[in-house]
Amino acid sequence: MKFRQNLPKNSFNFLALCAGLTSFFSSCKSLDPAASLPLPQVPAASSYVNVPVEIPSATLTNLVNQVVPPTLFNEKGMDLGNGIVGDLGFVRNGMIQLTPLDSQRLQVTLPIRIRGEVGLKPGGLRNLFQSKIPLDQTLSPVVVINPQLNPNWTLGISEFELMDLGGKIGLSALGMEIDLSSMVRNEIREFARQNLTSKPDLINLKPVVESVWNQVGRPVTVDLEGKKMAFSIRPDSVKIREYLVPSKGFHFDLGMSGKVQTHPASAAPSRPLPLPKITPNLDPSNRLEINIPLHLTYGELDQMIQQAVAGQVIRINKKYLFQPSNFRSSAYGDRLGILMDFRATAENGEQIEGEFFLVGKPVFDPSSSVLAFEKVDFALSSDSNKAKLGAQLKRGKISNQLNQKLRFSLQEVLQGSLDGVKERLALQTPYGNLQLDNLNVSPDGFYPTATGMDIRIKATGQVNILWK
């Protein structure tokens, strides 16, 4: 994005007017270019996004079915009790179904197929019957779990309750029917105790989260009058509140705040800065606010002004031509000051030389997307008494004309910021795409500092997700 001014056409036509202001020298002595005035406080370039995310039950079910592997587990020598052991494999046998019961508990129906062999332990009847009996049966266990998201970006299951085995499992041997249902039920519970509830960091979500952050959090490079800069976000906090919604799905409020940092384009970070640990989120709103800091040094401002008016001679009236040079911009409190040398040449060759000091408070005019100035004032210094001519002009009239002439177009920098935010947040995944609604970009402040002028560009809007 570029910060471009309409300088050659109109931005410094005000100098023609300024040269005619010599009559106000005595009334402008209150402006001292050398004065050291208190500078405005520049707000931190912070950004914040909070997105309420509703994952429909169908999408959540689809996601779970894609990540749960076909083979759940295999175990040899599984002790089924009553002297029976088995070499069994548990595999999926259909689509997993998820049903939120309340804000914390999730019911999972997991169709499984159990295949393998069972037999007796060594000794006793095992010495008479050496062969094992093949087993191939299906169940649809119903369990209730309480998933929890941990601060270190892992997912755990704090509770696991087997509600229904979803069928019976048994075998026939020596003319007897042996019911293995209770044995399998105990084995499932023992498996959950050892492999699920006892491991708080059951699933590591950080690689998934970081893959998204690597796209969204990458530095953005912009062009400000040929000066390439890069911006990155240093996250201060990531806040999440998650809960289940019966008959709807899974809800979580995702919030992130951070500071926007400026880098030379050649020294921009090659990857996003790391994410902090998760903290609780109490904000249910949907809002996006990104503050982009731009900075122009006074040397760069001087060069821009010089390039715009270099060699120009401006007619003040029928008699005098005005030529400014040697521009020196600086902070004048919360206003921008421009000190310049001038030479006014009369038709007869007579010349008047001196210094002209112009100050104005930079503001944004949303009606025309331009940087304008208010509280415009000026002072003139010259050894020539003829520099005090033109007393018929009124100070208020000149100030109004200066306000109209001091206007810089910000259309391109705003459009560039808008495009940059859209491009960075245009995230597409196999499950859903991010969509920005009511996105608005506008300047939020202009702050003269000790080294240059800081410009804050603010982007606001809402973020929505279109689930597939």
Topology, please?
Blueprint: H1 7-11, H2 14-19, E1 46-56, H3 57-67, E2 71-81, E3 84-92, E4 97-100, E5 106-109, E6 112-120, E7 133-139, E8 142-149, E9 154-164, E10 170-173, E11 176-179, H4 181-197, E12 203-204, H5 206-216, E13 220-224, E14 227-245, E15 249-264, E16 278-280, E17 287-297, H6 298-309, E18 314-315, E19 320-332, E20 335-346, E21 351-365, E22 370-382, H7 395-405, E23 408-409, H8 411-424, E24 432-448, E25 452-467
Parallel strand pairs: 14-16
Antiparallel strand pairs: 1-15, 1-17, 2-3, 3-6, 4-5, 5-8, 6-7, 8-9, 9-12, 10-11, 13-14, 14-15, 17-25, 18-19, 19-20, 20-21, 21-22, 22-23, 24-25
Task: Give a short synopsis of this structure.
This is DUF4403 family protein. The protein is of the alpha+beta class and 468 residues long.
Structure, described:
- The chain is rod-shaped.
- The N terminus is likely disordered.
- It is built from eight helices and 25 strands.
- 19% of the residues lie in helices and 49% in strands.
- The strands form five sheets. Strands 1, 13, 14, 15, 16, 17, 24 and 25 form an eight-stranded mixed sheet that branches. The chain has a six-stranded antiparallel sheet with strand order 18-19-20-21-22-23.
- The chain has a domain of 148 residues.
- By secondary structure, it is an alpha+beta fold.
- The relative contact order is 0.18.
- Strand 19 and strand 20 form a beta hairpin.
